[in-house]
C-alpha cells in the first residue's frame, strides 16, 4: 500500500471505522492460494446463511417451508439446495428481507427500474463500506482512492455535511462532474476545458455518455491529456465502443460489472484476461433455465450472493443478467476467479414468432468486425415483431458493406419470419445517459 492510499484510508476511517483494515484484507485475499480463498468464501457463506435463517423473516419462512436448515448445508455443493431468489419476490416481500436485529430506518435504500421497467427497492447497511472493491480495482490500475478524476454519471454530488465530509476525505482530489442525463455541446466543451486544466488520471462514467463525448472528441479532432484508464459501467460494452473510446481518450478501457443491488461484482485489471470477480465479497453462480449449474465457458443466468450484507441479505439472487465464468487464470497473479463481459440482459432477448430467441449477448456482437466503420448501433423490435436496426456510421463509404453483412447475418437467424429493416441514422438517443442497444416496444 502506498502512502497516498494509506493517508486516504486513515481519513476515511474517521467517518467509517474499519476501512483501512478491510482494504488490507481485500488486497491480501486477492492473492490467496485457491484452496484458501475457497475456504474463506465457504466460511462467509455459512455465516451468512446461519444469520439469515435466524434473523431474517423471509429466509426463515422460505427454508422452513421446504424443510431446509442451514445446518444441512455442510459442503459447498449443498449450496445448490438454497432456492433461487427472484426480483418479484423482493418486490412483493420487501419488509421480510430486513434483519430483525436492526432498525429498518438505518437502511440505505437503493432502487432500480431495470430492463423490465418494474421498480425494485432493496436495503443496504447504512454504514457499510461499499467503496472497498472500487479502491481494490483502483490498485489494479496504479491509481489511489483520491485520484483526480472525471465523473460522467447520473445525478449531482451530494450536498450539506455529507459533501463536506467527502471533500475532506478526498482532499486534495479534483473532480470534474458531467451529468450524464443531460449532455449538451456547451457542457462537453466545459468538460474538455476542465480536463485540460486538472488532467484527470481516471475517467469514469456510463457507457452511453462517455461514448457521446468520444464522438465529439474524434469529430472535432480534440486531444485531451491521456488518463491512465477509462472505467465504464452501467451497460454492455461492445467492441465498437471500446475501440472508439480508447482511441478518443488515448487510454485503455476498463469494463466493470455491477448492479444497483450489488455495486461491485467484477472488473478488469490491466492484463484484460476477463473480469476478476470480487469473490471474497460476492458469490457468482451461472445457472441454466432449470436453475442447474452450467460448465465454465457456457452462458446462463447470473445468480448473486452478497457475502457482506447482513441487514438486507441477498442470497442466490437472480438479477436478470446473463454471463459466463471463464476457466483460465490471469497473468496478473491474482487468484480471484474470472468471468466474461456481461453482454446483454435476459429481458433484452428478442423472440420470433416460432418461439426462437435471439439472445442479447449475440445481438451485441454482430458489429464486432466493423469497429472502424460503425460508430453506434441499436436493435429495435416493434410490437408486430418486426426488427429495425439503426446504425450510425463513421465512414459513409462503408454503408453498403455494413448493411449487406448485417442483413445477411440477421436474415440467417430470423429465417425471414419477420420484416427486417436497416437504417443509417445520424444519431441514436440515450436515456438518462444510458444507451440501450436492444429495445423492445
Structure description:
The protein contains twelve helices and 21 strands. It is an alpha/beta fold and 441 residues long. The strands form five sheets. It has a nine-stranded mixed beta sheet. A four-stranded antiparallel beta sheet has the order 10-11-12-15. β6, α10 (239-249) and β7 form a beta-alpha-beta unit. α1 (3-15) packs antiparallel against α7 (160-170). The protein starts with a helix and ends with a strand.
Helical amount: 25-40%
Portion in strands: 15-25%
- What do the pLDDT scores average to? 89
Q: Strand count, sense and closure of the main sheet?
A: 9 strands, mixed
| Neighbour order of strands in the largest sheet | 4-3-5-6-7-8-9-14-13
Low-confidence parts lasting 5 or more residues at pLDDT below 50?
none
Strand segment tally: 21
Helix run count: 12
N- and C-termini, Cα separation: 50 Å
Provide a short characterization of the protein structure.
With 441 residues, this protein is of the alpha/beta class. It has helices at residues 3-15, 19-29, 34-55, 57-65, 87-92, 132-140, 160-170, 185-198, 207-219, 239-249, 360-363, 399-414; strands at residues 108-112, 120-124, 149-153, 175-179, 202-206, 229-233, 253-257, 266-268, 275-277, 282-287, 300-306, 317-323, 325-326, 338-339, 344-345, 350-351, 357-358, 374-381, 387-393, 420-424, 438-440.
Amino acid at each position: 500500500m502506498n502512502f497516498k492510499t494509506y493517508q486516504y484510508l486513515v481519513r476515511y476511517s474517521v467517518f467509517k471505522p474499519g476501512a483501512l483494515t478491510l482494504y488490507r484484507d481485500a488486497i491480501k485475499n486477492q492473492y490467496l492460494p485457491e484452496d484458501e480463498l475457497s475456504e474463506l468464501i465457504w466460511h462467509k457463506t455459512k455465516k451468512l446463511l446461519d444469520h439469515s435463517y435466524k434473523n431474517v423473516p423471509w429466509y426463515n419462512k422460505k427454508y422452513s417451508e421446504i424443510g431446509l436448515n442451514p445446518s444441512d448445508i455442510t459442503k459447498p455443493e449443498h449450496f445448490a439446495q438454497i432456492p433461487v431468489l427472484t426480483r418479484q419476490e423482493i418486490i412483493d416481500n420487501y419488509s421480510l428481507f430486513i434483519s430483525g436485529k436492526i432498525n429498518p430506518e438505518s437502511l440505505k435504500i437503493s432502487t432500480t427500474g431495470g430492463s423490465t421497467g418494474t421498480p425494485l427497492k432493496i436495503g443496504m447497511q447504512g454504514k457499510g463500506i461499499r467503496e472497498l472493491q472500487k479502491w481494490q480495482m483502483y490498485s489494479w490500475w496504479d491509481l489511489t482512492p483520491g485520484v483526480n478524476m472525471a465523473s460522467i454519471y447520473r445525478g449531482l454530488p451530494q450536498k450539506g455535511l455529507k459533501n463536506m465530509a467527502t471533500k475532506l476525505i478526498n482532499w486534495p482530489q479534483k473532480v470534474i462532474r458531467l451529468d450524464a442525463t443531460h449532455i449538451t455541446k456547451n457542457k462537453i466543451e466545459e468538460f474538455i476545458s476542465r480536463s485540460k486544466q486538472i488532467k484527470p488520471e481516471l475517467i469514469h462514467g456510463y457507457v452511453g455518455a462517455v461514448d457521446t463525448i468520444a464522438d465529439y472528441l474524434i469529430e472535432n479532432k480534440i486531444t485531451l491529456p491521456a488518463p491512465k484508464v477509462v472505467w465504464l459501467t452501467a451497460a454492455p460494452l461492445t467492441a465498437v465502443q471500446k475501440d472508439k473510446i480508447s482511441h478518443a481518450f488515448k487510454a485503455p478501457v476498463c469494463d466493470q460489472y455491477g448492479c444497483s443491488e450489488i455495486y461491485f461484482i467484477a472488473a478488469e485489471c490491466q492484463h484484460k484476461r476477463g473480469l476478476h470477480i470480487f469473490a471474497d465479497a460476492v458469490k457468482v453462480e451461472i445457472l441454466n433455465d432449470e436453475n442447474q449449474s452450467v460448465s465454465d465457458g457456457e452462458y446462463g443466468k447470473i445468480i448473486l450472493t452478497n457475502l457482506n450484507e447482513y441487514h438486507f441479505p441477498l442470497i442466490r439472487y437472480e438479477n436478470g443478467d446473463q454471463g459466463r465464468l471463464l476457466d483460465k487464470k490471469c497473468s496478473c497473479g491474482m487468484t480471484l476467479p474470472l468471468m466474461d463481459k456481461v453482454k446483454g440482459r435476459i429481458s433484452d432477448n428478442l423472440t420470433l414468432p416460432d418461439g426462437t430467441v435471439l439472445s442479447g449477448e449475440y445481438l451485441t456482437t454482430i458489429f464486432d468486425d466493423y469497429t472502424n466503420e460503425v460508430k453506434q448501433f441499436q436493435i429495435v423490435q416493434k410490437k408486430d415483431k418486426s426488427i429495425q436496426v439503426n446504425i450510425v456510421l463513421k465512414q459513409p463509404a462503408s454503408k453498403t458493406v455494413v448493411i449487406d453483412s448485417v442483413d445477411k447475418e440477421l436474415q440467417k437467424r430470423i429465417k425471414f419470419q419477420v420484416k427486417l429493416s436497416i437504417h443509417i441514422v445520424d444519431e441514436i438517443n440515450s436515456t438518462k445517459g444510458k444507451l440501450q442497444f436492444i429495445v423492445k416496444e
